[in-house]
Structure formats: structure tokens, C-alpha cells
Design brief:
Layout lengths: L1 H20 L15 H6 L13
């Protein structure tokens, strides 16, 4: 678990400048989010995480 947390933090630091430099949307409410982030916010499963495996 610690390893995954470290990877998430490292990825966030790597892309933080891109996030800060991105322009707000047309309403001035938000900035560009990383790929797949909106899916989690909307409560849907991203297509790259779907699995039809039966255990």
C-alpha cells in the first residue's frame, strides 16, 4: 500500500506544473484533469479498468 501511495504522489508531482499551467474551462470553474479522473468523479468505471473475469 505504501508503494502505491508513493507512486501516486510521484505521478502527481510530475504533472503538477501542467495542471497549474492549464487554463480554466469556459465557465472559469476548473482546470484540465488527468485522463480517467472524470470517470471516478462521475461514478463510472473507466474503460481501461473494466474486467469481465469470473473467479
Amino acid at each position: 500500500m505504501c508503494f502505491l501511495d508513493h507512486l501516486f504522489a510521484q505521478q502527481w508531482r510530475f504533472n503538477f506544473k501542467d495542471f497549474k499551467d492549464s487554463k480554466p474551462d469556459q465557465n472559469g470553474l476548473g482546470r484540465r484533469l488527468p485522463g480517467g479522473a472524470w470517470n471516478y468523479y462521475a461514478g463510472t468505471i473507466p474503460s481501461f479498468c473494466q474486467s469481465n473475469k469470473v473467479w
